[in-house]
Design goal:
The protein has two domains: 177 residues, NAD(P)-binding Rossmann-like Domain (Rossmann fold, 3-Layer(aba) Sandwich), CATH 3.40.50; 136 residues, N-(1-d-carboxylethyl)-l-norvaline Dehydrogenase, domain 2 (Orthogonal Bundle). Helix content is 49%, strand content 12%. It has an eight-stranded mixed beta sheet, sandwiched between helices. The N and C termini lie far apart (47 Å). The chain is α/β, with parallel strands linked by helices and 336 residues long.
């Protein structure tokens, strides 16, 4: 039986999730810009993202939040992290109390240090809080749109809602696992972008594959330290939303955050890189937010701090690498 689905956000990930949902459901995708919605309805293609992908006629687009949300049983949220609070505050009056929300947003809010789940709980009615499901895992939008095998995690404190979404989204090429560790899944999904920038910087300056492996491994240790401090389960970080997403984002050529790091390592300026990309690289904002949060909590995150110094122009990529290698020697078991 078809389920009415709304997808908020017509970027690459929102578009691929609309495409995924449209296989067996009635889908409305909300685009912030009216011209994007009009183009999707007229040409059945997104003019700005995944432009080569044909969208089925069953996907209807709108620039009205009310039109997108009224009567929808599942609401998939795929907007950039820095506009989540404002967008969902506007959307809240139109979301049914019976709806299940699926957040595919990855990041940490700079001003508050909140995860995206916490931001949603802050702006949405309490009745919706138990039904917020977080989607994360190794998943490039282009590969989902091309129906390449993809496996992700759906986390919800009330696992029954994650299982409901699991049944709706899963197919022969898109497999979902359920989980209850919302904090762990969110921290893994957000912070892997920082480590991907670090790995990109290392690759850009020619540090080599030994250094890449070290950055990923020690980066995962940093992610785990902060996550556990915030109440996450340590084992979550060896799963799909932790190690799985980290591996993909640090090594895949489609990774926007790795691309940012590569270009920084080659000596280019951040503003120039982001302007040329034309898409959001969440790791830049997340780096600044996480460093602020970790400092407040007293969590040691040397890789994240050095990435922040590079993106803010306080150190060169080569200097950052030297600082990491010259830190005080310690046991690998320290700080776990």
């Amino acid at each position: 039986m078809s389920t009415p689905v709304a997808v908020l956000g017509a970027g690459s990930f929102g578009t691929c999730l609309a495409l995924l949902s449209a296989d067996s459901n009635e889908v409305t995708i909300w685009a912030r810009r009216a011209e994007v919605a009009e183009s999707i309805n007229h040409d059945h293609r997104n003019p700005a993202h995944l432009t080569e992908v044909d969208l089925p006629e069953s996907i209807r687009a709108t620039s009205s939040l009310e039109d997108a949300l009224v009567g929808r049983e599942i609401v998939i949220i795929a907007v950039p992290s820095h506009v989540l609070r404002e967008t969902m505050a506007r959307a809240a009056p139109f979301i049914s109390e019976d709806a299940i929300l699926v957040s595919a947003v990855k990041g940490i809010e700079f001003e508050t240090g909140m995860t995206m789940h916490q931001v949603l709980c802050d702006v949405l009615p309490e009745v919706l809080h138990p039904k917020i499901v977080c989607l994360s895992g190794p998943s490039f939008a282009h590969e989902i749109a091309a129906r390449k095998q993809t496996v992700v995690t759906l986390a919800c404190k009330e696992e029954a809602y994650a299982i409901s979404v699991q049944a709706t989204l899963s197919s022969s090429w898109f497999r979902c696992y359920s989980h209850t560790d919302v904090m762990g899944v969110e921290i893994g999904g957000a912070l892997k972008n920082i480590i991907a920038i670090a790995v990109g910087i290392g690759d850009g300056v020619g540090m080599g594959k030994n250094a890449r492996a070290a950055l990923m491994t020690r980066g995962l240790a940093e992610i785990t330290r902060l996550g556990v401090k915030l109440g996450a389960e340590p084992t979550t970080f060896i799963g799909l939303s932790g190690m799985g997403d980290l591996l993909l984002t640090c090594t895949g050529d489609l990774s926007r955050n790795r691309t940012v790091g590569l270009e920084l390592g080659r000596g280019r300026k951040l503003d120039e890189i982001l302007e040329e990309m034309g898409e959001v690289a969440e790791g830049v904002r997340t780096t600044r937010a996480v460093c602020r949060l970790a400092d407040r909590l007293g969590v040691d995150m040397p890789i994240a701090n050095l990435v922040r110094e590079v993106i803010d122009g306080e150190r060169t990529p080569l200097e950052a690498g030297q600082v990491l290698m010259n830190r005080q020697l310690k046991s690998e078991r320290e700080g776990r």
